[in-house]
Design a protein that fits this description.
Blueprint (H helix, E strand, L loop, with lengths): L8 E8 L3 E2 L9 H16 L9 E4 L11 H8 L8 E4 L5 H14 L5 E9 L7 H4 L13 H6 L5 H11 L4 H21 L8 E4 L5 E4 L11 H6 L21 E11 H6 L6 E10 L8 H13 L8 E4 L4 H11 L12 H4 L6 H16 L3 E8 L3 E9 L1
Parallel strand pairs: 3-4, 3-5, 10-11
Antiparallel strand pairs: 1-8, 1-9, 2-8, 5-8, 6-7, 9-12, 11-12
Helix pairs in contact: 1-2, 3-13, 6-11
Length: 396
């Protein structure tokens, strides 16, 4: 492993909530409270005094309703951090909180801050997707909120259509996509049953009857898959003759949050904090707005180049399973060891709480690297309108 530099940004702690189904166990928890819960948890686990946090950067996609008015600032105050700690909410769509971690690392690397928290949240139960785009309208049925000049130049489709086009370009059939989805659930259930998710912070929730419970695992995982029912599910948008993307081979809408504490080596040493990992690459880039989900390929190529690594050097590869076609086109492009690609399943099984997924998957990957005693991990996420974020970390 490469030695760290005195002021290099290091990951000192990472946690996430369980991901709840939309309308499920976390439906009554406000997103600001959910984010406050993981902010408090990452400080509690690391032992860093809240007074030392220089900034809280939170990813959140639908910044409206309970997720509006700078949810980062509201959540940090709810978590008991002192008023002197600032916060900012940012929206890079599905990559929001992964980029929030990048921004926290950049602030530390620049010497502006000793410690920063990169985090994110989304409650898709309480704040419907596209609420910020619909502006309260009830008749929203597409991307009619976008500027007509933009859509004239770039006929941006729904992401499901982009996922269909990816399946066509890479010759991915319905059976292959469904088989991948089944494997995602199988791996996620094996991880849940094995109790390996050290990054998860149990949170209070309610059962289907509204009785109080504690949710300690991802709610969307199916221990048993009805293959016949999966086969009969219709495509989301296209006809059965031309479509292959169904609700079963796409990510689940979810409620969840994650938080990652970043600090400099010198500051960590001063407080006796043991680092978990260092950054080898932080990448964000734009890609084709129409295909819009293929940016994971270019982002991975760039991240590997920056890190000076090959795909074979990676012990853990976390590709956000927005759709099975995204993960499988990644597999076709890089030919990784498939046992190292989403070893604990992905968003098809555990869900995708938009703004919370980036920090959540980072926390999951770090936990996984420790579990397998691995060194290098890649996290990469496709983003709407054609972007991608990628991070390579080295476990310390």
């Amino acid at each position: 492993m490469t030695a760290t530099l005195p002021d290099e940004p290091l990951i000192l702690g990472a946690v996430r909530s369980p991901f709840g189904r939309r309308g499920g166990a976390l439906r009554e928890m406000r997103p600001d409270v959910l984010l406050a819960t993981v902010i408090d948890a990452v400080l509690t686990r690391t032992g860093l005094p809240a007074t030392q946090v220089g900034d809280v950067l939170a990813g959140c996609v639908s910044q409206a309703g309970e997720q509006g008015a700078n949810i980062a600032r509201q959540a940090l105050l709810l978590a008991g951090l002192p008023p002197a700690v600032p916060g900012v909410a940012m929206n890079r769509m599905c990559g929001s909180s992964q980029y929030a971690v990048h921004a926290a690392a950049q602030a530390v690397a620049a010497g502006d801050l000793d410690f920063a928290i990169g985090c994110g949240v989304e409650s898709m139960s309480r704040v419907p997707m596209f609420l910020d785009l619909t502006l309260g309208r009830r008749d929203f049925s597409g991307f009619d909120g976008l500027h007509p000049d933009l859509t004239a130049s770039y006929p941006i489709p729904h992401q499901v259509e982009s996922a269909e086009r990816i399946a066509e370009q890479w010759s991915l059939g319905r059976a292959e996509l469904d088989a991948y989805a089944i494997e995602s659930h199988r791996r996620a259930e094996a991880a849940r049953a094995g109790g390996v998710h050290r990054e998860i912070v149990p949170v209070p929730g309610v059962d289907k009857d509204g009785n109080p419970i504690v949710l300690a695992h991802d709610e969307g995982i199916r221990a048993v898959i009805d293959k016949d029912r999966m086969t009969k599910m219709p495509p989301v948008f296209r006809s059965a003759d031309t479509g292959v993307i169904t609700a079963a081979n796409a990510s689940q809408m979810s409620d969840g949050a994650g938080a990652v504490l970043v600090g400099s080596r010198a500051a960590a040493d001063a407080f006796g904090l043991a680092p978990q990992a260092r950054f080898r690459a932080r990448v964000v880039l734009g890609s084709d707005p129409v295909m819009q989900l293929t940016g994971v390929l270019a982002a991975t190529h760039r991240a590997l180049e920056v890190a000076g690594l090959s795909i074979r050097d990676l012990d853990w590869i976390e590709v956000n399973e927005a759709f099975a076609s995204v993960a499988l086109c990644f597999a076709r492009e890089f030919e990784p060891d498939m046992e190292r690609l989403n070893p604990w399943g992905g968003a098809i099984a555990h869900g995708h709480p938009l703004g919370g997924s980036g920090a959540g998957l980072m926390s999951k990957m770090l936990s996984g690297l420790a579990h397998v005693d691995g060194c290098f991990g890649l996290q990469v996420m496709c983003i709407g309108h054609g972007m991608a974020t990628a991070t390579i970390v080295e476990r310390l």
